[in-house]
Amino acid sequence: MSKHTFLLCNCANSMPIDGKKIGQNLGVGDLTVHTNLCRTGIADFETELGDNSLCVGCTQEATFFAEVAEEAGVATPSFFNIRELAGWSADAKKSMPKMAALTKHAMLLEKPARIRTLTSDGLCLVLGAGQECFEAATLLNQKLSVTLVLTDDTDLVLPAQLDFPIFKGKIKNANGSFGSFEVTLDNYAALLPSSKSELEFAGVRDGVQTQCSLIVDFRESAPLFTRHESRDGYLRSDLRDPAAVMRTIFEASDFVGEFEKPIFVDYNPEICAHSRSKKVGCSKCLDNCPAGAITADGDHVAINLDICGGCGNCAAHCPTGAVSYLFPDRTDHIKAIQTLASTYYKAGGVNASLLIHDKKQGLELISLSARYGRGLPASLIPLEVHSPSGIGHDAMAAAFAAGFTHIVFLGDPKQSEEYEALKKEISLTQSILSGLGFEEERLHLTYSIDPDEFETTVWNLANYKPVTKKSFSPLGSKREIARMGIGALADASTQKAEILPLNEDAPYGLISVNTESCTLCLSCVSACPADALRDNPDKPELRFVETACVQCGLCQNTCPENAISMTPRLNLLPSAMQPITLNEEEPFECIKCGTPFAAKSTIDKISEKLAGTHRMFESDDNAKLLKMCDTCRLETMAATNEGDPFALAKRPVPRTTEDYLSAEKSGLTIDDFLTQDETE
To answer: Is residue 256 a part of any domain in this protein?
Structure first.
C-alpha cells in the first residue's frame, strides 16, 4: 500500500473524512483530504498525475479526471466511491473504518478476465409494426444497414423514396448472438414497389431463414430470447415510450465494427458431473442458465460464450467446480471479501455486514438512498459485483469466517426469477450455519426498488457478533475453499458438530450400498466423475471418499442392481477425507488356473442366469467357461472349437418356405421335417 498514491476529497465539506486515521490504518501515513479536488483543487490532481498507482476517491467526476489525464498524456488513474457508499450517510461520523476498507479494496489487483472479440457488419433486422416503427427504422438506417420486417402491414404510409427493404413475416424462432443471429420467419413476403394506397406483398413463403448482426425489436409480443436484457445485440423497447425508443436507436447505431466481451466463465469437462454413458446426473447449470447459453453435449455440457451474460448461476451452483467464474475469479473475489473485513476491523469497526450489489440497479438504489435518505449504515460494507446471483456457498462461508455478521444480496426485481440458484446456495449456507449452532438469520435476499424499503431492510439488521475473524488463503478448488471456510466456522462453534444434515440437493453427502444386492460390478466407479468411488486392484472391493462426493446421482443411476442410495450431509471429521469400504468379498478363483479374477457374487449371478439357459452355455463344458479367467477361457474355446474361439455356438439357420417345399417334394411330412431339423 505504501507504493500507492491516494487522493481523497470531502466533496465541498459534504461528508467527514479523517485522512489521518485512514492513512495510518493503511500504512501510508497521513492522507490529505481535499475539499474541491475536481474544481479549485485540480492543480493538486495534476501534480500527482503520472503515478501509475494513483487512485482517486471520487467516481462522479471520473470522466473529467480522465480527460485531464489524457490531455497530460499520462495513464488514467483508478477511481473508487467513498461518498455514496460511506460519506453520505446518517452514520457518516462512524464510517471511517468503512472508508479505510473501501480505500484498501480499491487498490487490490485482480486478474483480468480474458476477452472475446465480436464483429458486427451493421446488418440490422428491425421487427415491429406501424408508422412509429418505420420512423425508428429510418433513423437506424442512417448508421446501419436496416431490413424492416413488419408483423402487421397496416397503419403505414410509405415515403416517395424508400431507403431500405421492407418485408412482412411472423417470427418462428431465433437463435445466435451479436454478430451472428439467425431468424426463421413464416408468412414471409417482399413489399411490391408498386404498392400505392395499401401495402402489397408477393412471394409468400414459410420457413425463410435470414442472418443479421443485431436485432431491434419493437413488437409488443414476448421477447425472442430468455433474459433478453443480457443478450448482446438484441435491443428491445416499447414504441409507446419515445424516450426508450430513442435510447435504443442511439445504442444500436454504434453497433458496427469490433467489440470486446469478457469471458465470464471457464469450463473443465474432466470434472463435470452431468452425464456418463447416457446416464444423466447433475443438470444444475442447465437448469439455472437464464440466457440459455448452456446446452447438453454428450456426457458434458457446452457453454456458448457469445450468449453468456455473466449471471454466474452456473458457477455458483456447480457442485464440482467444473464451471468457474472469471469476472473476477474465485481467489480474487474471496480475497476482496477478506480484505474488506480485515481492514474494517483493524480500523476499529464493529460487527460488519456485507452488501452484495451490482453496478446498475444496486448502485442506483444506494445512490438514491445516499442523496435523499439515510444512506448506508456505517457497519454495512458494500461490494460491487457483476451479478449478485453468482455468489456460491464457498464465498458465503469465507465471508462469515472473515468476520461478517450478515450478508445482504440486493437483487434486480426485473430478474427475480433468475435467483433460484442463489436461493439454494443461501439455503445450503444457512443449513451449515444452523448445524454449527448459528441459527440466527444472517442471509438476506431483497429486490427493493424503493429507497425507503431498502433502508428499512439494511438499517434493521440484527446486531449480531461475528462468528469468527479468520482469513485463509483461498487457493484450490471450489470444494477445498468451501471446506476451509466451513472449517473456520466449525472451529468457532461451541457445539463441535461433526455431521451436519443438509437439504436434498446439497453437493455433499454419503453413499450407502446394499451389500446383499451389490455384485461389485464396479460400474459405479467408472461413472463417478469426482473419484469419490474407487476400486481396489488387489481384490473385489468398493471404497468411498466422502469429501469428494458431489451427490450427482450418477452412481445411483448407473447401478444395474439399484443397490446405491444417497444421504445429503456434511461430514466435518478428518476421516471423511479417507477411503472407507462400502462392500467387499473374496475373489472368485479361475477353476482352471486358480487366478482370482472377479467377485464371487458376480460369477455366481452370471452363472445362474446363463448356464443351461443361454444357447452358448447350454452344455456343462461350455458353462464352465463362465468360471474361467479371460486367458483360460480363450485357450479352452480355441482348443475345443478347432482353433476358432468365437465358434462356441452357431446360430440356428432360420427355416424358410423353400425348406418346407423341398421337404414336401422329398415326401416328408411337416412333423418328420421338424423332427429331422431338430436332430440335425
So the answer is: yes
